[in-house]
Amino acid sequence: MTSDAPAPVGLETRPSLPGTLFTEQAGGEVNAGLDLRAVPSYKSPLKIGRSNSVSVSSEATEGDSGARSDSEEGTVEGGGAMEKRGRFRPATECVLVESHPSVHDPYRASSTPLYITATFKQSSATEMGEYDYSRSGNPTRTQLELHLAKLMSAHRSFALSSGMSALDVITRLVRAGEEVVAGDDIYGGTQRLLTFLATHSAVTVHHCDTTKVSSVIPHLSPRTRLVLLETPTNPLLKIVDLRAIVAAVRQHAPSAVVVVDNTMMSPYLQRPLELGADIVYHSGTKYLSGHHDLMAGVVGVRSEDLARQIAFVVNATGCALPPFDCFLLMRGVKTLAVRMDRQQRNAGRIAAFLDGLRTADGSRVLPSVFYPGLPGHPGKEVHDAQSEGAGAVLSFTTGSVEKSTKVVEGTRIFGISVSFGCVNSLISMPCHMSHASIPAHLRAARALPEDLIRLCVGIEDVQDLIEDLEGALRAAGVI
Ligand SMILES: *Cc1c(COP(=O)(O)O)cnc(C)c1O
What are the Polar residues biased-composition ranges (predicted)? Predict the structure, then answer.
């Protein structure tokens, strides 16, 4: 980002970031009387002017080899149009790991010290230190959680063993008789866990089209405990208006907690807590780690009440991220901005290439290309208003399952793999792979095309990626 954006602001305006909330020996009681309705509406302390959104135009496919500078792609708004968290711009905050009294390091190590220990000795039989048992707290984890809380604009954050364990912890806020409202085009694992919740406990789960506020409202009531959102959705990149749904929930289900799965965007591109959500979570396995070398989940909350409830469940169930994985995740997060910038830029170029393919008579080659950076993508204005970029996942159809299969198998650089967020580019057919667990009739009902190809774009030279795709499309007879 350029140097003419707002000046750094003082540390004292940051929300307080406590260390551990529990030790194994103390803090065993969760306050059953916590009233979520008492949570004040979140107000981000600061404003920032920043945008790194990529606008795709057909010219983007022409000319250069992809080695364009960030500033050519980004538009920097100087006047505070976007809400801000923290003191510096997000790319700076990713690498700036601050020391905190909860993590005493007399040697001031540049890399977070790794405490591979299950237990911590007490100074006497009666005096307890800050840490006693790593399920309850570990300094390496505390350092990571403080860093992630800052990036997410969260009051507190929790590093957990996977994205699914993050959702598991969150769903434990729901009690018998209460209800969950969730999208109908959600991550397959989320669907599976919510179905388990609905069949194993007295909890009702409503699925609806969260891209339309009007289809969410009828499901909201005083019984609603969680409203679970994902935007953009995967693999069709549908956009959910987070501010509008938060407003509807506050009005129709005042005791409900708005939860956003922000895995597709990462905190670098979208910070739902700044848009009014109560809880945000990420699969840390994806962009936060960036290298597909660990599993992790991250939860960020906007209030102390929610922090205490989540901390209780994490300590009670023992799903916190082990120290070594905390160390790895911290290392990954430091390069989040530079990876995301590059991946997003590459994705924008590839989307423009695919969308611009024409036959000799000038008609479109590909029936559809789904990418929020493309002009005309449904919900693009909403996406642009709530995020700072289109991300690095896109999908397209070829019109034929057979041809799509050939394209997927015909690329040389793109690995055929589920998941996304890695520095390597990946290609998949969701209906055969990540979404195969959803029955065919449900896939059809959700208009998930069987010939859909998903690309998760990495940091390679974009010209190589485009040539690789072009070769595979040609070999498959698509072009
Ligand atoms: C991968 C993913 C998850 C689950 O995370 P794991 O780390 O695999 O448990 C949840 N939501 C989304 C959107 C994901 O992509």
Answer: 50-60
